TrEMBL record:
<dbReference type="Pfam" id="PF04909">
    <property type="entry name" value="Amidohydro_2"/>
</dbReference>
<dbReference type="InterPro" id="IPR032466">
    <property type="entry name" value="Metal_Hydrolase"/>
</dbReference>
<keyword id="KW-0456">Lyase</keyword>
<feature type="domain" description="Amidohydrolase-related">
    <location>
        <begin position="2"/>
        <end position="249"/>
    </location>
</feature>
<dbReference type="InterPro" id="IPR006680">
    <property type="entry name" value="Amidohydro-rel"/>
</dbReference>
<protein>
    <submittedName>
        <fullName>Amidohydrolase family protein</fullName>
    </submittedName>
</protein>
<dbReference type="InterPro" id="IPR032465">
    <property type="entry name" value="ACMSD"/>
</dbReference>
Length: 252
């Protein structure tokens, strides 16, 4: 399976999420134990402090296992060097997408500073994955509005709306051509409805592995097991865990 939402440890920031120190070797050993062949890895430090150094550290982590790990970097969107950093990240650093966290990074998806950054990601056939599900920032409607301004950019709702906004995330995924949805931390009752109603080619799965302390790896294993309780068909499983993420990670 391909896990579309995992994190590095926090090397430079102290956050309430805690965090254990682990390297790429340990992470890939965890993936093996959980049956995860490939993972999209996002920076933990970059959520709180989106610096070029956070992209460097992420690139170093994923490049140890280029066939197993794919990195999505991040940028401080209002910084004047944001476009330049987006170019460096997908160029020189070989990262394949952009992760944005409008809530923690403190901006709205409606801000026009995002447009040239999105153009950089679109130009290399990359993917934008945004945190979603926590109002006031990070609602699916706001993320869908950005996706509609950039119809060639593939945009992923990183959490399927979580507890509060999963209905909106489902509706926006149905209504917006280039918007996809990752079931990651989405409650089971919502996951079942999303699987039943969302376009099957648009659903992805993620564990958020790596985000917090050691328990989060156990938690990630629990999330993989939870899939069985979603009333999922073999075809949906194949699409969500293999075909859809593979298609998104290929250049269009
Ligand atoms: Zn996450």
């Amino acid at each position: 399976m391909i896990d579309f939402h995992t994190h590095t440890p926090a090397w430079e920031t102290s956050t309430w999420l805690g965090g254990a120190a682990f390297g790429a070797d340990e992470f890939v050993a965890f993936m093996d134990s959980a049956g995860i062949e490939q993972a999209v890895v996002l920076s933990h430090d970059g959520l709180f402090d989106p610096t070029p150094e956070s992209n460097d550290a992420l690139a170093e982590f994923v490049h140890k296992y280029p066939n197993r790990l794919t990195g999505f970097g991040t940028v401080a969107v209002r910084r004047k060097t944001a476009v330049q950093e987006a170019e460096r990240m997908v160029g020189e650093l070989g990262l394949r997408g952009l992760k944005l966290h409008p809530w923690l990074q403190g901006f709205s998806m409606h801000e026009r500073v995002l447009d040239p950054i999105c153009e950089v990601i679109t130009s290399v056939g990359g993917v934008l994955l945004s945190h979603d599900g926590t109002p006031p920032y990070s609602t699916a409607g706001q993320i869908a509005a950005l996706a509609r301004r950039h119809p060639k950019l593939r945009v992923v709702l990183g959490h399927g709306g979580l507890h509060d906004l999963w209905r909106e995330s489902l509706a926006m995924t149905q209504e917006t051509e280039n918007l996809y949805l990752c079931l990651c931390g989405t409650p089971p009752y919502a996951a079942r409805r999303i699987l039943a109603e969302a376009p099957p080619h648009k659903v992805l799965f993620g564990t958020d592995a790596g985000l917090s302390d050691k328990a989060s790896q156990d938690y990630a294993v629990a999330r993989v097991k939870e899939i069985d309780g979603w009333g999922i068909t073999d075809a949906q499983r194949q699409a969500m865990l293999i075909d859809n993420p593979r298609r998104l990670l290929e250049k269009p």
